């Protein structure tokens, strides 16, 4: 199989239009969702997706919805050009890299300046001061983006990692739902890195 340069799509509507166009041509679409800074594990997921679908979309989006204000989203590693080079070097390749700037602020259609999602800074203030005891808040809520709808996985939120990171699973489930609704894949491939995820 030939190597190819992936098309980079940042706009949600353009991504959905591409997917629907490919599906109308009878193609199946595989999605590999990532937060970027790709490594061999991600590459193995892409290779697995290639076995099950005609076209591969890799999303690269550092999701602020899974970071609490006390966690430093701004220091999450990023090497977009390095990621593209790794994907370009794959036999069979990746057709699209979906790299939205923001999936949470409304009216921007995903094209807001900033690294992987508007401002990547999140206050380091004590959570209890900013949200009150007993409720969870993410970087998204602290920024007052207007985003109010979340996907909850209530039992997973209560055990193991969920005890220490109460908003994490809600953020992951929400962004995956958003990606599914935008990309509209036939299959999605996830790693086994974290048992609870």
UniProtKB/TrEMBL annotation:
GO MF annotations, alphabetized: ATP binding; pantoate-beta-alanine ligase activity
Region (Disordered) residue spans: 108-139
Keywords, in A-Z order: ATP-binding, Nucleotide-binding
GO BP terms: pantothenate biosynthetic process
Signal peptide positions (record): none
Coiled-coil region: none
Domain of life: Eukaryota
Protein name (record): Pantoate--beta-alanine ligase
Organism lineage: Eukaryota, Viridiplantae, Streptophyta, Embryophyta, Tracheophyta
